[in-house]
Amino acid sequence: MTDEALQEARLLLDSSQGAPNGSRDAEELRDALVDLGAKYDVDRRRLLRKLEQFLLNHAQAAVNSPARDYDAAPLTVELLRAFERRVLQRRSSEGNRQPPTARTSHSGRGDAPRARGPPLSGFGFDPSLDMWLNWAPSELVGEKDETGLLGSPERSPSTHNSAATEARLDGSGARKRVRAELCLPGDDDADETYAARKKKGCTDAVLGDTGTFDDLAAGSAVAVGGVSVVVDSAEAISGRYMFELPGDCVMALRARLQSIASRILARNGLELSACGLRTKSQDDVVVIGRMHVGDAAAASAAPSILLEDEEGDMVALDLSALPEYFVFPGQIVAVRGTNPDGNRIVVRELYDDASDVRPNRPRTTTAAPSGFAPAAGARLRIAVAAGPFTTSLNLRYEPLADFLRLVEEMRPDVIVLLGPFLDERHRRIADVQDVVLASVLEHRVLERLRAARERLPCTTIVLAPSCHDIVHSVCALPQPPLEGALPAGLISTPNPFVLSVTSSDAPPLRVAGVASTALEDLNAASLAKGVSGFERLMRTAEQPLRQQSFYPLYPPSPSTPLRVSAVNHLELRGVELFIIPSKLKPFVVWEHDACIVNPGTLTKGVAGGTFALLERESTSNGERWRGVVRRI
């Protein structure tokens, strides 16, 4: 929309002089608006809010695409028909309309029918054109509606500030950025399922002797002065996703195989045999390579399991002699066995653990042993939540607000939030212009976090992006931090990330996390024998620690874009807390010398999800971990 069209829309909605094109045009516009409200059963306030957003989106789009056909169009009945096609018909086809009796305004009061005679009384329209002209859209004026009744006929024309509106329009007619309340598609859709959710605050998983874990919210506040959170430095990642050279990918995979294989050999005291994968041998040999696992569900016969060395040679593996195993594509292993015919290794032992041995690590427990008395302040409290942070109905982020209110009672040292913060898969994203997306993140997410940080001045809030964050310029693992400046007390990390949390009262803590579908991908692609149920889930969760990679699966799942040439940036070593959110069953466990937590997601469609609360207590005798996964 050009400068003239934007001014025409403002005059129609923000003055008492009538429409710019004369009384007949004003009457036609009035009739068209009334017809739209009656046809789609939309009350006056909601229709005005949607029309306001439609006009704003067109004005913003004109700034970036001044050559578009509709840019020069004045505010006409035809433009209202375009509004009907692009907004109202789409909403009607989604089946999202609420019955008139269920609607409420932003003030919490129902939209009472107006007794001005048919056909307007059925959906709350005033037949007077003055009502339409006396309404000032909050986004155009740039002021918050103090009454909470957008479009209310009681709002006096004297409250409009035309000068303020003009001041917010630059020379090209584009609206300058103002800190006004956003009006987004779906804002009027009530989160009825989320509001009526059951089992609020119920526990889904517990680590340690915590009882009901209610005492975690009690006790002293965070240590005086807070903690120091430092993101481990990493080299800048060069190149672009899907523009990688095959040679670079091969070299990166080969370097990782050599590095992990050498650690497996060193940890298990093995010596590599001086023979190839296909060398015939009646005696035991030790060879290393990367696993290739066939799809067990694709064929009735047993899936093929192959081992590939760094040169690309492959040999079949016979694992039938092993009492149990857990394998997946991309897993780097050392195997001991015989190769009678040169085409198949009969495996007697399989080694996959490349993690570092830490002999000087303090004794760690998940229970309170006799005489265990942590010193005052020698505890670290961490709250963890993963996106989506709003329900699939709207972009109001009420679950995020509820989560922040809950963790304020716990007074954690660190709050870790893993994306997506603005999910590209959200049903409302298609209705929001690209130029508005950054404002959604700023006003709906960062503003809430800033307010929470003001109430918890000693708490550090950590944000890690996701490949599904539509406001991020990189959509593949590994990702750089979120762009742009953040409020004080907020830290943006890469994805995946490793943090060093230190305080004067407790030993340093290394925290790692990844916002991806790594757990689901590993669980779906793995093949196991002798393990099932929750034990299999635990074996899946510890694989990143055993393989020392945030995403050890190769080739990656189609749902996870992976920059293969940058797999060295996915290295995972020496952490005590590993966060791996997923849609699988939430858990918090102590496995493989680390606390592993799947906090779940804060929302599940239209319903509420889960989050995690963790605490490490330290004393000269050792450490004690406690944790809980709760429903929002």
Give a short overview:
By secondary structure, the protein is of the alpha/beta class. The chain has helices at 3-14, 23-40, 44-64, 77-94, 129-133, 138-141, 162-167, 192-195, 246-268, 398-410, 434-455, 518-525, 533-547; strands at residues 203-207, 228-231, 281-293, 305-308, 314-318, 325-327, 332-339, 344-351, 364-365, 379-386, 414-418, 460-464, 490-492, 497-502, 509-513, 527-529, 577-579, 587-591, 594-598, 603-604, 607-608, 610-619, 622-631.
Report on this model:
It is found in: Nucleus. InterPro entries: DNA_pol_a/d/e_bsu, DNA_pol_alpha_bsu, OB_DPOA2. Keywords: DNA replication, Nucleus. This is DNA polymerase alpha subunit B. One of its GO terms (biological process) is DNA replication initiation. Helices cover about 25% and strands about 20% of the residues. It is built from 13 helices and 23 strands. It is an alpha/beta fold. Strands 1, 9, 10, 11, 12, 13, 22 and 23 form an 8-stranded mixed β-sheet that branches. A 6-stranded mixed β-sheet has the order 2-14-15-17-19-18, with helices on one face. It has a 5-stranded mixed β-barrel with strand order 3-4-5-8-7. Residues about 10-20, about 65-75, about 95-180, about 215-225 and about 370-375 have low confidence and may be disordered. It has 3 domains: about 5-185, no CATH class; about 205-225 and about 380-515 and about 560-630, Purple Acid Phosphatase, chain A, domain 2 (4-Layer Sandwich); about 245-350, OB fold (Dihydrolipoamide Acetyltransferase, E2P) (Beta Barrel). The radius of gyration is 30 Å and the shape is globular.
